[in-house]
Specification:
Layout (H helix, E strand, L loop, with lengths): L24 H13 L3 E9 L2 E8 L1 E3 L4 E2 L6 E2 L4 H14 L24 H5 L24 H11 L13 H15 L3 H13 L5 E2 L13 E3 L3 E3 L14 E3 L1 H12 L6 H8 L10 E5 L2 E10 L2 E8 L4 E10 L3 H12 L16 H4 L4 E5 L6 E6 L2 E6 L5 E7 L2 E4 L4 E6 L4 E6 L2 E7 L1
Antiparallel strand pairs: 1-2, 1-13, 3-4, 5-9, 6-9, 7-8, 10-11, 11-12, 12-13, 14-15, 14-21, 15-16, 16-17, 17-18, 18-19, 19-20, 20-21
Length: 439
């Protein structure tokens, strides 16, 4: 659900020959030991092959304040992996004759712009043109407030349309909030009940449900951001993301869900194949996730300080799930390392910098920066001895010193190089360079 300054990198495409029979467990253990030693990742990982668990590991704390360690049954917010659950519910409704993929949504939302030309299929594939309400400039100011159906519909309607339905593809959480309402109207039941009866009960998911206020006494994890130690993140009110990002689960339950989905326990085989049909990179609630010559299907997610990844590879019948409640490293790097050990690829155990910058030295980097290369302005501040960067309309994120005048934010693969004398800053991300000047 949440955003970073620029788009997060996806897994690369190359060619190799390997199978999961070469699983390098010791290397994966070493990788996670390095992350745990340097406080870079807290969460749980679960991997199955042919229905058998071949790797499970929990790192760090579910509740740091009360020193509650994460375990295999720790329940995390999974963010946008919720969309895959919602898509399954929609396709179940299609199989039952309650909906059709190509029906227009004006029956449900007669006052929504373009509703008479937007189909349920376009909502599922992010081709509706409906503006993504989480991109609103004021979004972060009300994420902790409860929102009713009527309030969310008004917020979505106010966002208008970004393009003619069907003409483009653009990821929008609004699509899956609307699908939540369509499901509730079609069945006359709340989304939480549908999730339980039509997915969780069928697939044996004992720890999967629609979240509310986080309750660590019930085994639920809080989320954190690394800022000279783990800092507690605020909670999004789960009335806002709904079927776009409100599901709570465990890594083991996500694996069970994926196996049930691709194993034909939740949908007919033809419906599963429909989900996998891509249009501009998006299937119906799932995405194609390439890893060298392998092709997996699944989804990733992020909300507050939580990050998650679920991917199933039919070749080898392998399912990988990881959920983090705090990460100071790009989640893609964790996924790439895990899949590399599964498929016989080499991995590099990360080495982390111990470079230190004094509190006084940090002052020379603070200020407001603007660029001719990109419209986003960046405000750099110092908070509790940590350099913080914040792009216009987005949440602030901590910068870690790696060398003289050089800082990084691993979670989004951002590097910032400062020149205090010239009053400039260079931002590097995704192979691109953006030049900034202090105002």
């Amino acid at each position: 659900m949440n955003r970073f300054l620029l788009s997060i990198l996806t897994l690369g495409l190359l060619v190799t020959q390997a199978t999961a029979q070469t699983f390098q467990k010791a290397k994966l253990d070493s990788f996670f030991q390095a992350l745990e030693k340097h406080d870079r990742f807290i969460g749980t990982i679960n991997i199955e092959q042919q229905g058998k668990n071949i790797y499970s590991r929990s790192l760090g704390f579910a509740d740091l304040e009360h020193q509650k360690k994460a375990t295999e049954t720790t329940e995390y917010r999974i963010g946008s992996i919720s969309k895959t659950f919602t898509a399954v519910l929609v396709l179940q409704a299609v199989e039952e004759g309650k909906l059709t993929l190509d029906q227009h949504i004006d029956t449900f939302f007669p006052n929504l712009l373009n509703a008479d030309t937007i189909s349920i299929r376009q909502l599922l594939q992010h081709k509706s043109g409906i503006n993504n309400f989480t991109n609103r400039a004021d979004y972060l100011s009300w994420i902790d407030q409860e929102k009713s159906r009527e309030q969310l519909l008004q917020i979505i309607a106010e966002g208008g349309s970004d393009f003619t339905p069907g003409s483009k593809t653009a990821y929008s959480n609004s699509n899956f909030v609307l699908l939540t309402f369509i499901l509730e109207t079609s069945y006359g039941k709340p989304y939480s009940e549908l999730l339980k009866s039509k997915i969780a009960d069928k697939a044996g998911l004992e720890h999967t449900f629609v979240g509310g206020t986080i309750d660590t006494e019930k085994g639920q994890a809080k989320s954190y951001r690394y800022q000279s130690g783990w800092k507690l993140m605020p909670e999004t009110n789960m009335s806002i993301p709904r079927g776009a990002g409100a599901v709570v689960s465990t890594a083991a339950d996500l694996v069970k869900f994926s196996n049930a989905l691709f194993g034909g326990k939740l949908l007919r085989p033809e419906s599963v194949e429909m989900m996998k049909g891509l249009d501009k990179g998006f299937g119906l609630g799932i995405m194609r996730i390439p890893f060298f010559e392998k092709t997996g299907y699944g989804h990733g997610g992020s909300i507050d300080g939580f990050a998650s990844m679920l991917v199933h590879f039919a070749d080898g019948d392998i399912t990988y799930a990881a959920i983090s409640n705090g990460s100071a490293i790009d989640m893609n790097e964790v996924t790439i390392a895990a899949l590399s050990t599964l498929f016989g690829r080499p991995i590099t155990i990360p080495v982390f910098s111990d470079y230190k910058v004094s509190d006084e030295e940090l002052e020379q980097y603070t200020g407001n920066y603007s660029s001719k290369d990109i419209a986003l302005k960046i405000k750099v501040t110092k908070v509790d001895g940590v350099l913080m960067a914040q792009a216009t309309g987005q949440a602030a994120f901590p910068l870690e010193a790696t060398a003289a005048h050089q800082f990084k934010f691993d979670t989004a693969k951002i590097r910032m190089d400062f020149d205090p004398v010239k009053q400039t800053m260079t931002l590097l991300q995704g192979g691109r360079t953006y030049n900034y000047t202090r105002e």
